Amino acid sequence: xxxxxxxxxxxxxxxxxxxxxxxxxxxxxxxxxxxxxxxxxxxxxxxxxxxxxxxxxxxxxxxxxxxxxxxxxxxxxxxxxxxxxxxxxxxxxxxxxxxxxxxxxxxxxxxxxxxxxxxxxxxxxxxxxxxxxxxxxxxxxxxxxxxxxxxxxxxxxxxxxxxxxxxxxxxxxxxxxxxxxxxxxxxxxxxxxxxxxxxxxxxxxxxxxxxxxxxxxxxxxxxxxxxxxxxxxxxxxxxxxxxxxxxxxxxxxxxxxxxxxxxxxxxxxxxxxxxxxxxxxxxxxxxxxxxxxxxxxxxxxxxxxxxxxxxxxxxxxxxxxxxxxxxxxxxxxxxxxxxxxxxxxxxxxxxxxxxxxxxxxxxxxxxxxxxxxxxxxxxxxxxxxxxxxxxxxxxxxxxxxxxxxxxxxxxxxxxxxxxxxxxxxxxxxxxxxxxx
Length: 436
Description:
Elements: H1 2-29, H2 41-53, H3 57-65, H4 75-87, E1 91-98, H5 108-119, E2 122-127, E3 135-136, E4 140-144, E5 149-152, E6 169-172, E7 179-184, E8 193-197, E9 206-211, E10 214-220, E11 228-233, E12 238-244, E13 251-258, E14 261-268, H6 282-292, E15 296-300, H7 312-328, E16 333-337, E17 343-346, E18 349-352, H8 356-370, E19 373-375, H9 377-380, H10 386-392, H11 407-431
Parallel strand pairs: 1-14, 1-15, 15-16, 16-19
Antiparallel strand pairs: 2-13, 3-4, 4-7, 5-6, 7-12, 8-11, 8-13, 9-10, 9-12, 17-18
């Protein structure tokens, strides 16, 4: 009997001891360090990598405002800007590629104006001899005769991207036909102009150069190299080029720039995803780089792949495109600008397209993959629902398709992009003790 009582008491004592132990564990757990043993450097590195992979979109956006590492992709560009700002000599050049969002110099003209106001520079930059948009709003107007054959990746007359010039266009003249292209800038003078053209066996082509002061020159073209150039005129309000016997020569365009400062070229490729840039002729682009010396390549695409989710394929292909452009334009930094907000009708309400977040993640992915800088234009313009708001403002800032900006909206977008880049540039100077 005593044995049974002892066994019973022992059971309760053991039971309560276990309960006390469990309670003590939870009480003191909060006071214990997360690990009783120091982690090795390798383990710490692995934990950091995992944490980086688990960043949320909000974390990424916050990080970008405080010096997100991807802006290290603009170090060379910022260094060139600083040298220009300090010495007031030399030039910095930007090639801005995009889809119809930048057609007619929208967005780009405002970025160009802001850079030239701060750092100097004149001229609209590189303009094709013929294209699908024979005018630039507020910047320059140009016209061309119907005898030109215009080729591009998205034209009715197509050529492989490897045959196109840097603007995405190439123009050919019909045989033995007098053809012309004219540029004018209202009451303002056009900057110094230079014609760029390609290689051909044609040794009989004659170009006549006329300005608002009359004919100034008639020259025999020499299309002997992969890229050839001829200086045209300086500081004229109107420039007219007439070509005779110029068939088989690929004409790429005219560069308008003058003095030290910043030049920004608008290369709008309507309906384009950016993928054809991966087929650009490297030797030809290297020749353009030697002549124009680009410091920054901007890529603003996305609207034309928004319906093709999932976007892993796009991130992978655009990674190859960016790496190809690095070889085409050695020394130039790359900036990826994401797709802006795009509204789609769900029920009776216009809302942010449900595919947009995944597309922007893919765009950030190929920026990370290639060490390019990245700007989230969706967040910059206001994030979720911003396109619907922009389209409904008075006056509206977007068109009724809820994709494209009107002139007022494009100006605001251009200013937002410039302000973001300029803020990062000023941060670069602070971090590197370059303030003076």
